[in-house]
Structures are given as structure tokens and as C-alpha cells.
Design a protein that fits this description.
This protein is of the alpha/beta class and 249 residues long. The chain is 51% helix and 15% strand. It contains nine helices and nine strands. It has a seven-stranded parallel β-sheet with strand order 3-2-1-4-5-6-9, with helices on both faces. α5 links the parallel β5 and β6. It is globular and about 50 Å long.
Length: 249
């Protein structure tokens, strides 16, 4: 059976990836720091789709915990890796504890780097494999450290796509906008002023991402409205982009 390892699969986009791949017949290795929820999701998906679900409790902000997941990828290679684990800080950079900022960097950048590096050799030997790195449209604007981390994820994934696709390994940066998940509420972000049209459904985001991945695309921006917004940021005058960026660090 093909196998997929997914980080952050207990809710939102990660859960939708887990459900979609399980429905296709993938066995799952699920990584999250919340062991109880991890086991609940594993039991649910295994029962519903008749696949094997392995749980790997790990906090990807911790170097040793990340190393354990790396070793799992080397010892038991997977067909699909989804780097989805999230981390967000709502306050401006200068008001955040530096250790919290470091945790964000570790989850959103270091873990993506290291898990991709661990999964790649077996995929290249086999001549096939898929890696999805969940980024964000925030990476297309100068929007604090979160946007900077996501800009790195998109750039890294685009390079990896170009470099490894000829060898049979597809790499995709998924760049959604606002998605109905637990992400914003868990970091205490106020979202009441965000228009309804800007919100996306996680299942629809994942369906479009998998379609784009299998079509050989390097970057997936789900929905026509966010594709238009990303295009606008690239074409807008520099002064307007800087004005938008200054609204929140």
C-alpha cells in the first residue's frame, strides 16, 4: 500500500489531506504534538477507509522530536510527504517573546527543510514521490515573520520542483488564503472583519492542491479569487504593496 506522512493532521488542511489520501487508499503516518487528538483521527480514518494509520506524537518545534520523525522517514520511506504543521503569532514582531518567534521558525522552516531532506533520498532512488509544503499567500507580501517563513517555503518548494521533477519527484507549494480552520482562533487572532468571500473550505483547498500537484505544477493558489489577488500583488506599484504591509508588521 502507498504511504503518506502528514504533519499537523488533527484539523483543518492537514486533516483534509489525511482524509483525502486515506480515501485513495494510502496508509497514513500522522504527526502532531497532541497525542490524544492524533489517536482519535487515526482511529476514525482507519475505520472509515480501511487503511493503516500510525501515530507519531512529536512537537516539531523541538529538535529531538523532529529528528525522530526524520529517522522514521529514512527507515520507512513514504510515497507522499505533506509538511502542514502550523504556527502563528498574532502580535507584532517586537512584542513577541523571542523564544516564541524561534518556535515559529523551527516549525514553519526548519521542520520543512529537515523532513523534506529526510524523505527525498528514498523517493529519488525509487524514481517517484510527492512532497506538498503548505505555504500561504502571506508569503507574497512583506507581512512579518510568518510571511517571511512562508516566502521561504514557496521559494524552496519551487526550486525543489524544478530540480527534482525530472527524477520523478513532484514538489508543490500550496499557498491558500484564509481557510476555515482552528488556526486563527488558536493564536487569538481577530478575524471578524474579514469578508466572507475571502474564506476557503479546507476540503476544496486540498482537492485543488492534489490536482495541481498531479498536473505537475510547482505552486498551487486555490480559488480564482486568490489567484487574482496574488497576480495583483505582483503587478501592483511597490508603494501600494508597502502600504498594505505596514498595516500589520
Amino acid at each position: 500500500m502507498p504511504t503518506a506522512l502528514i504533519t499537523g493532521p488533527t484539523a483543518g488542511i492537514g486533516y483534509s489531506f489525511a482524509a483525502a489520501l486515506a480515501a485513495e487508499g494510502f496508509d497514513l503516518a500522522l504527526v502532531s504534538r497532541d497525542k490524544a487528538r492524533l489517536e482519535q483521527v487515526a482511529e476514525e480514518l482507519a475505520s472509515r477507509h480501511h487503511v493503516t494509520c500510525t501515530v507519531l506524537p512529536a512537537d516539531l518545534a523541538d529538535a529531538d522530536a523532529t529528528l525522530a520523525v526524520e529517522e522514521r522517514l529514512r527507515d520507512q520511506p513514504v510515497d507522499v510527504l505533506v509538511n502542514n504543521a502550523g504556527f502563528g503569532l498574532w502580535r507584532p514582531f517586537e512584542h513577541n517573546d523571542i523564544e516564541a518567534e524561534q518556535r515559529g521558525l523551527d516549525v514553519l522552516v526548519r521542520a520543512v527543510l529537515r523532513l523534506t531532506h529526510a524523505a527525498l533520498p528514498a523517493m529519488l532512488r525509487r524514481g517517484s514521490g510527492d512532497i506538498v509544503n503548505v505555504s500561504s499567500v502571506a508569503g507574497f507580501l512583506p507581512r512579518g515573520t510568518y510571511g517571511a517563513h512562508k516566502a521561504w517555503v514557496t521559494s524552496f518548494s519551487t526550486w525543489a520542483h524544478l530540480h527534482y521533477q525530472p527524477a520523478g519527484v513532484r514538489v508543490l507549494a500550496l499557498c491558500p488564503g484564509f481557510v476555515r480552520t482552528e488556526f486563527h482562533s488558536r493564536m487569538g487572532a481577530g478575524v471578524d472583519g474579514i469578508p466572507e468571500w475571502m474564506w476557503l473550505n479546507a476540503d476544496a483547498v486540498v482537492a485543488e492542491a492534489l490536482s495541481d500537484l498531479r498536473a505537475g505544477k510547482a505552486v498551487s493558489v486555490p480559488s480564482a479569487r486568490y489567484k487574482a489577488l496574488v497576480t495583483a500583488t505582483r503587478l501592483a506599484p511597490r508603494g501600494l504593496v508597502e502600504k498594505l504591509a505596514r498595516r500589520r508588521g
